[in-house]
Design brief:
Blueprint lengths: L3 H6 L1 H10 L6 H37 L5 H32 L20 E6 L15 H8 L2 E2 H7 L6 E2 L2 H19 L4 E4 L3 E2 L1 H7 L11 E2 L4 E3 L4 H5 L6 E3 L5 E10 L18 E11 L4 H19 L3 E5 L11 E9 L4 E12 L1 H6 L2 E3 L6 E3 L1 E9 H11 L7 E2 L2 H7 L3 E2 L1
Parallel strand pairs: 4-9, 8-14
Antiparallel strand pairs: 1-11, 2-3, 5-7, 6-7, 9-10, 10-16, 11-12, 12-13, 13-16, 14-15, 17-18
Helix pairs in contact: 3-4, 5-12, 7-13
The protein binds one RNA strand of 90 nucleotides through α3 and α4.
Length: 425
RNA sequence: GGAGAGGUGCCAGAGUGGUCGAAUGGGCUCGCCUGGAAAGCGAGUGUACCGGUAACGGUACCAAGAGUUCGAAUCUCUUCUUCUCCGCCA
């Protein structure tokens, strides 16, 4: 959510930015309502001041056993007017919030302008140490490998829950767990993140805090009886750890990483990239979240990206890092880098991580603040998060790149101690 | 799930219709004292919004929401939540 004052003072910029992000919120209407809002507040406040003063007078009269009936009658009408004004104010603020919640975050000046993914800019590319293209020759795609090796049972997953809910079996289950543990250990031991283990179901206030609600309600699984939502990413519970808190400046930056299962309905994307692991309703992910001082957020974004890239480098998987153009950047983000791994079978880059600086957009929504120093006025923190990483597409790349000519998988060295085996098949 | 008791400022804790943005104690900050420190003494110590260049003024907030009243931390209702006991359970 943007600051009302910011919208008021930068109306044209906010409108242009909204258009660039393919939204058309009624900014002019918002500004007009804000004017009305302030007028109401002013009027109601003055009346309340009168009421407070006269109420004191009434108390004094009553104490002195004098008659206060005239004043009481007068205040009755004042109170009625106040009630009307408060009601109108509530209505106006509701309308304003309805608009404000749909105004996307303003892109950082370093973000290129573009319509869609074609406007993104590749900023880094690393070849894998073990790419199976070229002389080694790619043989099977990940789904075939998984099936032939008996490490994922898509059919039974579908029987249990539906398509998009894979059942990992045997060494597949162990490899999945190994990847997650490997990534968590790296982020905690080497990158300075503090691990947390979070609830996977959250309430509406948390979903609103990180921006999933109200805009993306259709993408979430809900437990209607209990008004709970299955998290689409650990970003939601981790960011909401500090909702409504005022943090000490000395504690910043706060860096958390968390494992979670992620649940996404993926409504509207049926049949698109749904083969095997490419798009799932439930998957596992390690998430990194940072709470930082505003002046540090862009350098923290760079290290966040490097932390995510480090995983791929250690695993020797070819990847590239792209800077998203404004038209492809998410609603809440001011600047986003995506990490993509290469799938030789798909002949495509697959997104495995998205690292964003939200500046104070989420912090304002979730009301997460800090004091720069003792006694200073609270300011909003900047929040950042990035996957580090999501496993399904990582698994795709890993299987395809590390397959041998005879159809086995040679586990990359850093994972072996986690797996307890060197070969699958 | 059943029964009971609570939710007040950074923390503890008083306050049952007007004199309460809120006693008192602790913490913290600054100052005095000291060779330095402790103790002691003194002062200060919430957030948001509206108006104002500012100083400042006003309004709101005692879990959240609704209500009663001229006036609510205080009375009523609803919700959330914490604790204790019982039941169930990995």
């Amino acid at each position: 959510m943007l600051d009302t004052k910011f919208i008021r003072e930068n109306t044209e910029r906010v409108i242009q930015n909204s258009h660039a992000k393919h939204t058309q919120p009624d900014i002019h209407g918002f500004v007009k309502m804000d004017e009305r809002r302030r007028a109401i507040i002013q009027e109601a406040q003055d009346l309340k001041a009168t009421r407070n003063n006269v109420s004191d007078e009434i108390a004094r009269l009553k104490k002195a056993k004098e008659n206060a009936d005239a004043l009481i009658a007068e205040m009755k009408t004042v109170s009625d007017t106040i009630k009307q004004l408060d009601e109108e104010l509530r209505g106006v603020e509701e309308q304003m919030e309805h608009i404000a919640l749909y105004v996307p975050n303003v892109s950082h000046e370093s973000v290129p302008h573009g319509k869609d993914a074609s406007g993104n800019i590749e900023i880094r590319r690393k070849d894998g140490v073990n790419t199976c293209e070229g002389e080694r020759g790619f043989r099977k795609d990940h789904a075939t490998l998984a099936k032939d090796l008996g490490i994922v049972d898509f059919e039974r997953g579908a029987k249990i829950s539906g398509s998009g809910f894979p059942l990992y079996t045997g060494k597949g289950a162990r490899l999945e767990r190994a990847l997650l543990n490997f990534m968590l250990d790296r982020h905690t031991a080497e990158n300075g993140y503090t691990e947390v283990f979070v609830p996977f179901l959250v309430n509406a206030a948390s979903m609103r805090g990180t921006g999933q609600l109200p805009k993306f309600a259709d993408d979430m699984y809900t437990c209607t009886d209990d008004e709970l939502y299955l998290i689409p990413t650990a970003e939601v519970p981790v960011t909401n750890i500090y909702r409504d808190d005022i943090l000490a400046g000395a504690d910043l930056p706060i860096k958390h990483c968390a494992y979670s299962a992620c649940f996404r309905r993926e409504a509207g994307s049926y049949g698109k990239d749904t083969r095997g692991f490419l798009r799932l309703h439930q998957f596992n992910k390690i998430e990194m979240v940072k709470f930082v001082r505003p002046e540090d957020s862009y350098s923290e974004l760079e290290t966040l990206v490097r932390d995510a890239e480090g995983i791929l480098e250690v695993l020797g998987i070819p990847y590239r890092t792209i800077l998203l153009c404004d038209g492809d950047t998410g609603f809440s983000s001011a600047k986003t880098y995506d990490l993509e791994v290469w799938s030789p079978a798909e002949q495509k880059w697959l997104e495995v991580s998205s690292c964003s600086n939200f500046e104070d957009f989420q912090a304002r929504r979730a009301n997460i603040r800090f004091r720069a120093e003792h006694g200073a006025k609270p300011e909003f923190v900047h929040t950042l998060n990035g996957s580090g990483l999501a496993t399904p597409r990582l698994m795709v790349a890993l299987l395809e790149h590390y397959q041998t000519e005879d159809g086995r998988i040679h586990i990359p060295e850093p994972l072996r101690s986690y797996c307890g085996f060197e070969w699958i098949g």
